Amino acid sequence: MEKISEYNANATAYLNSCIEQWSRHKFDSTVCCDHNTTNFVESFNACTKPFRDMPVFSLLEAIRSWCMQRVGARFDKAVDMEEGQLTAYALKELEERTAESRLCYATACGGGEFEVRDGHVNFPIRLATRSCACGKWQICGIPCKHALRVIYDQRMNPHDFISPWFKAAAYKLTYAEHIHPMADPSQWPDFGLPSIQPPTIKRPSGRPAKKRKRGANEPKKGKRNTNVKCGKCREFGHNSRTCKSGGTSATGPSTSKSGAAGASTSNGGPNTRKRSKAAA
């Protein structure tokens, strides 16, 4: 925050006024979400990219079809889920944190309280309140690696300590309704209403842009892979054609070619023999 204040004091004042949006310790624990991003919007924009240059009706129809397929797949998946089954996200997080919990050591303190040592730091844990000193369990609703160390030592099932939002019941309620199929507009009844024509606008020159305009402070999208290795200087990030160091290749294919050409010229190649016959 001090570094931000040195750059722009107004930015610090803004961040202090909306701590609940960016600081994890201020997140609502009942939501069970430890991150707040716009990934959903970015994914939606990426899916609608092929339809942006269509008319409004065609654009909305394409979005409806895409949403119908996505929700329909989740609807069928929710029907097949068993009672108490975890979602794919919760199962993945549980597996990763289980692997991390192997490096922690738990000590029972009595009364359902434990102390877990992670490296050189101790974290008090209370299973009754489902809380850990690191704060991750309370915010995300999935036991952290410290809590999992205690749960496994006590021979308990970690599924019993995961929030109900990550289980089959909540998943089924989320996708309980699906988008029903719709008939083609050619099959709609005619009500005799006037058709709305699009406004008369002048089409600008050039091809319509489909890519999103990036902000001034947003990094540009890289076009080249950083794993490309130069054949001259052996550095990553460019190839031998764009190399500016002026180094020579280790294998030296160009040197061998020039050497072969020089040898043929000096030893009298086929062109030399033809010129000597013509002179004779």
UniProtKB/TrEMBL annotation:
SMART domains to which the protein is assigned, alphabetical: ZnF_PMZ
Lineage: superkingdom: Eukaryota
Chain intervals with Low complexity compositional bias: 244-271
Annotated SWIM-type domain residues: 123-155
Keywords, sorted A to Z: Metal-binding, Zinc, Zinc-finger
Biased composition (Basic residues): 204-214
Keyword Cytoplasm part of the UniProt annotation: no
Tagged with keyword Zinc-finger: yes
Ranges where the record places region Disordered: 189-280
Name assigned to this protein: SWIM-type domain-containing protein
